[in-house]
Amino acid sequence: MAYAFVLGGIALLYFGGELVVRGAVGLAKSLGVSPLLIGLVVIAFGTSSPELMVAINAIANDADSIAIGNVIGSNIANILLVLAVGALLVPIPARGPVVYRDGSVVLAITGLFIFLALTRGVIDQTSSIVLLGLLAAYLIFSYLQERIAVPVEAQEEVQRNRSLLEQVRENGTLRSAILTIIGIVALLIGARLLVDGAIEVATALGVSEAVIAVSLVALGTSLPELAAVIVASFRRQSQLVLGGILGSNIFNILIVLGIPGFFWQIDIDPEFLARDIWIMLGASLVLLPFLLSNSRVGRAEGAVLLAIYGGYIYVLFNGLPPVLQL
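Above: the chain's sequence. Below: its structure in token form.
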């Protein structure tokens, strides 16, 4: 039953996240919001909604480890799993001002999160104000930069493509509102099922909630990103992959921790400080050579990243192999 809860929760989170994004984009277009602002704010908040709902539900059930572990594990999975799968399908370019900007932001906020975790041991209202302030600054800067950087002709060409904006063009305001409401309900139910199921699975396997959070829960909430990468690769739009992954990692920290942290104090399990935050930092640093050299993440690099992720999951559940133990 616990595994059924987990699978059902993941399915509802995926379904709900899709509906929230489509409904929110439709509402934004009906209200005359510009495509750039839709991409930066509406879609970003929508794609972070599964992680946010899981975090809120976990904190409400005194399962802070699941909230924190989901963020850490999702950021690890986005790079070592999602990016790896995308690179194995089609080599992914790591160039362009947006990729360099977002890559730098990922490194900066990852370092900030580690600093807060080591020095404060909690995400409280003060930490939340810092995170949400950085979120506002990032959105404003990105919006202004992209308005300047993207010519009008390029914006029109983007809108002619078969993108998410085109897919919801015919949605009326009422239909978009209904999609959004249904999506939110699905997210609420899915988050509750996933959190309850994860706690039961951890108990049954005799492992900590922290381990389940950075593995099973994080993998479940990373499925939308994985699905998007696979679709983009098959459509030969791999240039969009890295930007989406970097954006997801940015919003995972700034939104998924920033919003709940404003209302509740989120305790950070010492287990994360000993292992997982350093894996998250290492995964973020892996991107640095590609960003600095404007090269691409090829199939060989993807295979290495995937092997690292497999090794990380193995160690989570089995510990270090005897040959590697001190």
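Confidence is low (pLDDT under 50) at residues 151-162.
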